[in-house]
Write a sequence for this structure.
């Protein structure tokens, strides 16, 4: 499954190879995808290589080989020209207002929460993955709404008690308050778990580990995907 930018870059590399027999330069790729820096291209190439779509040939500058193309010309997760990550699509765990319980019963029902891949608590990584498995939680542990879960990768939120391999349960919502820990989508491309800080017209994504810097973005670059509501840890 590829994101919109990953698919665009793969098609661009493939077209250049067909036209000239030579892979495009990083500057050409950056301009073609309208990215601000070549570091974004580097991350996309790593992602494509990890997913088996391209291969970097050793000891040769700019040497890229396209191994395969997506089955569909429409990038996975793209709908109507706008990127929408799969972590908030599909059958999410819904918690509704509780009905009155019969006498002698506590009324607790379990809710099936889909685990939708991994989320970075560190350097942002792609969090656009398929439903991997399902966990079950009592409804009274969750607020009303739709929920999904993600496996944490990284250590940037350790001072907030969130560790590598923890499972975070996220309530799907597109807004949050300063101080909330959120899943934030950056530039329609990368997702990360961070504490939200609103600074005037800007949005700061704050780590809970002094080894990581706070990243500040314009409001048009960040989409809130959901808010952390619960955490599960295995010992």
């Amino acid at each position: 499954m590829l994101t919109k930018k990953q698919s665009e870059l793969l098609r661009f590399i493939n077209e250049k190879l067909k036209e000239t027999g030579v892979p495009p330069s990083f500057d050409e790729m950056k301009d073609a995808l309208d990215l601000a820096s070549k570091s974004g291209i580097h991350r996309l190439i790593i992602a494509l290589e990890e997913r088996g779509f391209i291969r970097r040939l050793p000891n040769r500058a700019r040497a890229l080989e396209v191994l395969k193309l997506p089955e569909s010309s429409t990038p996975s997760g793209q709908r109507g020209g706008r990127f929408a990550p799969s972590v908030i699509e599909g059958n999410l765990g819904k918690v509704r207002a509780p009905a009155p319980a019969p006498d002698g019963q506590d009324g607790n029902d379990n809710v099936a929460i889909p685990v939708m891949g991994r989320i970075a608590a560190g350097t942002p990584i792609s969090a656009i993955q398929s439903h991997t498995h399902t966990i079950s939680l009592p409804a009274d542990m969750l607020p009303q709404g739709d929920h999904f879960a993600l496996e944490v990768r990284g250590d940037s939120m350790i001072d907030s008690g969130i560790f590598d391999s923890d499972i975070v349960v996220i309530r799907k919502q597109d807004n949050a308050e300063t101080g909330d820990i959120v899943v934030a989508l950056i530039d329609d491309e990368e997702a990360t778990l961070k504490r939200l800080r609103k600074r005037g017209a800007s949005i700061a994504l704050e780590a809970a580990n002094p080894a990581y810097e706070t990243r500040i973005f314009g409001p048009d670059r960040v989409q809130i995907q959901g808010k952390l509501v619960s955490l599960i840890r295995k010992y």
The mean pLDDT is 79. Helices lie at 4-20, 26-33, 38-50.
